[in-house]
UniProtKB/TrEMBL annotation:
The lineage of its organism: Bacteria, Bacillati, Actinomycetota, Actinomycetes, Kitasatosporales. One of its GO terms (molecular function) is phosphate ion binding. GO terms for cellular component: ATP-binding cassette (ABC) transporter complex. Belongs to the PstS family. One of its GO terms (biological process) is phosphate ion transmembrane transport. Coiled coil: none annotated. It comes from the Bacteria. This is Phosphate-binding protein.
Length: 363
């Protein structure tokens, strides 16, 4: 039976007041009570998921161009696996991934740095199934069919399993060319986690992770950009990418049947509906599973990793302010919506802002 989970409604009064001060109608320049605007300087470096790459590019450009012009925030979209590796190695100031750090990784982080790591979600997003053929836009897929395609069991668009889901669609008698990520990827984690929770044979053979031992029939692409490009260039191509890349490349997308049996397209509204079913614990380790209603079923979050120590004062202040700004500024939310990401609700933001305050607190 599907479990209905809701976002926990917690948060301190102080964090709520901070949001009220920072997210007012200032036209997006981030004026608020957190810092004196124009007082921050220095540079922070981060790396990780390509999933939020377009949004992080937009956020950093606006923040350093209009909010704190003496500051620099650099982010390299190297994939979630690389982001986790570089964060744990201490070569970046912050990391990013589509899955939270597990207990073992948090232990490694504490050993490397000598203090606890901090991790918090900043945005929700959908993983879209994109198609080479515009005539197939809106075709219906289930978790079982998607798993069958990536396992080499379903090889043609006119396969009976696909045809049964799409009785009104003229399916081409051509091979399906499944495309997947060739690098360690949080997008792969969200995609494979979904299939693992829904399809028993997938859980047994492939399980979930940022990189898998893929079937030999699949082609690989580097980053969301590489998958989107390969799908666009290869007749019969089908791949999974962050929703923003599907929008940017104007690719056809499939509707995916959710837990209530409803075929849902990867829209912002459907992503928001899915995110609202997530129960967010105090440690911010969660997954978005068993999505029904109007929710799109392949939905995930992006986490940021930082430390409670080891930064100089300027770096710690910049990290805290930048990530607080992304969550509390109206323009930051508008950027997210324009690119197809779902901003978090006000009460969850208050909890996350409180957690961001722990960055560098032990210095």
């Amino acid at each position: 039976m599907r479990k209905r989970l809701r976002v926990a409604a917690a948060g301190t009064a102080a964090a709520t007041l901070l949001i009220a001060g920072c997210a007012g109608g200032d036209g997006g320049d981030g004026q608020g009570a957190a810092v004196n605007r124009g007082s921050l300087s220095g540079r922070v470096e981060g790396s990780g998921a390509t999933f939020p790459g377009p949004l992080f590019d937009r956020w950093t450009a606006h923040y350093t161009g209009r909010v704190e012009t003496a500051a620099r925030v650099d982010y390299r979209a190297v994939g979630s696996g690389g982001g986790i590796e570089q964060f744990l190695a201490g070569t970046v100031d912050f990391g990013s991934s589509e899955r939270p750090l597990g207990p073992g990784e948090l232990d490694i982080a504490a050993d490397v740095r000598g203090c606890a790591a901090v991790q918090f979600p900043v945005v929700f997003g959908a993983v879209a199934l994109v198609l080479n053929d515009d005539e197939l836009d809106g075709m219906v897929l289930t978790a079982e069919v998607i798993a069958g395609i990536y396992d080499g069991r379903i090889t043609r668009y006119d396969d009976p399993a696909v045809a049964a889901l799409n009785p009104g669609l003229d399916l081409p008698a051509e091979p399906i060319v499944p495309v997947r990520r060739g690098d360690g990827s949080g997008t792969t984690y969200v995609f494979s986690h979904y299939l693992t929770t829904e399809v028993p044979f997938w859980a047994e053979r492939y399980a979930e992770g940022t990189d898998l031992d893929w079937h030999e029939s699949t082609l690989d692409g580097e980053g969301n950009e590489g998958v989107a490009a390969t799908v666009r260039e290869r007749p019969g191509g089908l791949g999974y990418v962050n929703q923003s890349f599907a929008l940017a490349d104007e690719l056809a997308t499939a509707r995916v049947v959710n837990e209530d049996g409803t075929p849902v397209a990867p829209t912002l509204e459907a992503t928001t509906a899915a995110s609202e079913e997530a129960e967010i614990p105090d440690d911010f380790q969660f997954a978005i599973d068993d999505i029904g209603g109007e929710g799109y079923p392949i939905t995930g979050a992006n986490w940021i990793f930082a430390y409670t120590c080891g930064y100089d004062d300027a770096t710690a202040a910049l990290l805290r302010d930048f990530w607080t700004w992304t969550l509390t500024d109206a323009t930051a939310d508008r950027h997210a919506a324009e690119l197809g990401y779902a901003p978090m609700g006000r009460e969850l933001k208050a909890r996350v802002v409180e957690e961001i305050g722990r960055v560098g607190e032990s210095d």
